[in-house]
Amino acid sequence: MPAAYLKDSFPVLIAHCKAVLDKAYMVQKLVATTDTLPGWEGYPVKLYQYETGKDLYTGQPKTGMVYLLNPSPQKLAMWIATACWTVKGSVDSKYTDSLLKWINGQSNAQFPVKGVVYEDQYTRNFQEPYVFKDGVTVYVKDSTMFPRDKTCTLAQLAFYLRITNDDLKPQTGQYARIASTRREDYISNGGTADVGDAANRKIKWLSVVRDLYKKAWNSDENELIILWAKDHL
Questions:
Q1: Are 42 and 35 in contact (CB under 8 A)?
Q2: Does pTM top 0.90 for this prediction?
Q3: CA 56, 119, 198, 171: dihedral to nearest 10 degrees?
Q4: Which residue among 83, 134, 162, 230 is least enclosed by CB atoms within 10 Å?
Q5: Exposed, middle or buried: residue 59 (CB in 10 Å: 0-12, 13-18, 19+)?
Q6: What is the mean pLDDT of residues 179-202?
Q7: Torsional class of 110: left (φ above 0), alpha (ψ -120 to 50), beta (otherwise)
Q8: Which helix (H) or strand (E) holds 128?
Q9: Cβ proximity of 194 and 204 under 8 Å
Q10: Which segments of 103-212 are extended strands (E)?
Q11: Which residues pair with 51 in a beta bridge?
């Protein structure tokens, strides 16, 4: 990556990343920081309690609990610049801004390690809960531990913070935070783990995403972002 870019333009990208992270809606009340969460030992995972906006149907905000491992503005900017340089051979703002815009739209650059993520994905202001583990949407086996009315109880919130793969159905969501990387992106670029595909979304994807994100945490490269960029940027 050109030294001139790091000196002159990179600080602008950092500022843009800070603007995104400053609006990360689950970063509200910090409950705890831990580096002993199973599977994430040694990483500074933060537990947050947060409230949504007023729900369309209840008229009240909903409360969520989630462990997050979000990058700093500098780390996010470096991941983005490195991905653009790797994939496009360029750190022109048309690439870096496009990639940041995509990440912001997909996740606000929030990486849910474990817990519930409320989103009004399909109906504006209808806050629906999605359970996450290792940056991927998952589905719990026990139907009583998922709210039929889409408002999680305190017991359900606590359960999501301690789930293991044994608590989950064998099929998971498709997309990996923070760039909505798909299994197909991983496989088409040389991934060898048996993660399945869009029609057979094997739970192995969780450990692949977890390992790649942990690797990225102490690196200038986030392979999950690079994999997405290779197929879509």
A1: yes
A2: yes
A3: -100
A4: 162
A5: exposed
A6: 97
A7: beta
A8: strand 128-133
A9: yes
A10: 112-119, 128-133, 136-138, 196-197, 200-201
A11: 63
**Rounded distance between C-alpha atoms, residue 195 and residue 171, angstroms:** 10
Name the strand (E) or helix (H) holding 67: strand 63-68
Tokens of 21: 């992270």
The encoded tokens of residue 210 equal 């977890």
Rg (CA), the chain: 18
Place of tokens 């109880």: 153
CA terminus-to-terminus distance, the chain: 18
Domain ranges of the chain: 25-69+112-169, 72-108+177-233
Task: Indicate the angle between helix axes 223-232 and 93-107, nearest 10 degrees.
Answer: 110
Local confidence band at 167 (pLDDT 50, 70, 90 cut-offs): very high
Output the pLDDT for position 156.
98
Q: From CA 22, how far away is CA 64, in angstroms rounded?
A: 18
130: its two tokens: 């999605």
